[in-house]
Amino acid sequence: MTVINLFELAGEFAEDKDIARNIRIDKLLPALANGETVEIDFAQVGLATQSFIHALVSDVVRKEGPNVLDRIVFSNCNSSIKSLIRIVTEYSQDQID
Amino acid sequence: MELRLPNSAHLGNIEGFVRGFNPDGKADELSLEIHPKWVSVHPAVLAMSATAGATMIANGGLVTAKVPQIKSLPYLVRMGLFDVLQINPGITVTEHEEAGRFIPLTNVRDNKGLSEFIVNMIPLLHASPDEAEPIKYVISELVRNALEHAVSPVGAFVCAQYFKKTERLAIGVADSGIGILGSMSRSHPVKSSMEAITLALKPGITGTTSRFGGTEYNAGAGLFFTKAIACASRNFFVAYSGDALFKLRRTPSGQTPVIHADPNDDIATRVEGLPPWQGTVVGIDIGIEAHKTFDDLLREIRGAYQLQVREGRKARYKRPRFA
What we know:
The complex is a heterodimer.
Chain A: E1 2-5, H1 6-10, E2 13-14, H2 17-33, E3 38-41, E4 47-48, H3 50-64, E5 72-75, H4 79-93
Parallel strand pairs in A: 1-3, 2-4, 3-5
Chain B: E1 2-5, E2 8-9, H1 14-19, E3 29-34, E4 40-41, H2 43-58, E5 62-66, H3 73-78, H4 81-85, E6 102-108, H5 111-125, H6 129-149, E7 156-163, E8 168-175, H7 179-184, H8 193-200, H9 222-232, E9 237-242, E10 244-248, E11 268-271, E12 277-287, H10 294-306, H11 311-315, E13 321-322
Parallel strand pairs in B: 1-3, 2-4, 3-5
Antiparallel strand pairs in B: 6-7, 7-8, 8-12, 9-10, 9-12, 10-11
């Protein structure tokens, strides 16, 4: 399993979409392409924006389909971040390619 | 170009200030008029004034102002307005800690500058983490929107003020870019600034693509979330761009705030034919009495999103895995 430590990459407030996009392209997509399960660890991340979560996972869900969510584990999320992940993953499923 | 800082210009009565803006006149001069007795203005007014001045200066023009020595002048000095406009206000103000009161005018030009600004501004507010969350969120989304979509020659200006009596934090962000019509018309057949603002407030619509839901990078939901945060705390949200102004009105006490995905359903003031602002100005008030957590708010926003989707489809959503 690949573990992505988000705090190390994006800090306490995950809001920089460029960082999110780089994580998706450089880490998330290659690991999924290898058939791995990916854990995105939100430990120490206090807040994220919807834009950040969108840039991180929306395209993955749209292109790979909703079942890709079985291979992504969002760990150590506080309730706000869980809400944002739910919002983004839900609307992304409405827009499957 | 002429700007008048009136006696009072907050989001509830901002139309008066906007109508007093004159984008015509001398092309190489911004003339700033300040009310001779007292000035109490929303950060959106300061952000717009700073943006107008900075743009004029960047284009080789000058800013002129007759500065009355009024009681509220130190506030304008402390907010950094005269520094941006390169005008000597005729007084010096002893700097003291800004904690708990305001975030002075700050010019943000790139993503790195935005990230640094967010880190530096929070201690100024002396807010608890729960109180700080919506503030950080709104500023990040609004300024990043301006940096990404506006093509503003001076970046974005942002400032904020905490009003203790009403327990609200007022935030203003302005740019002098292509405006919401310029941005939205790249991908959508919009004909007016009001039409463009209305479209931009709908979640899933962005100027970067005609596709609903946006691109891999832009969701088209930043303004919707920002308006929703104002709505949920029973406060104003204003977007002024081109000749149009949209103002979400406050939900009266006794009524439950309802977040609408379609801004046409909002109880709002919509004004067209205003003096055209080349760019975008956004003002928002957030109640920070902490009666509602940020997570509560996000749940309501999620509900507003889902209202757009048929019930049967909702039931089929694959759920994310949390650990």
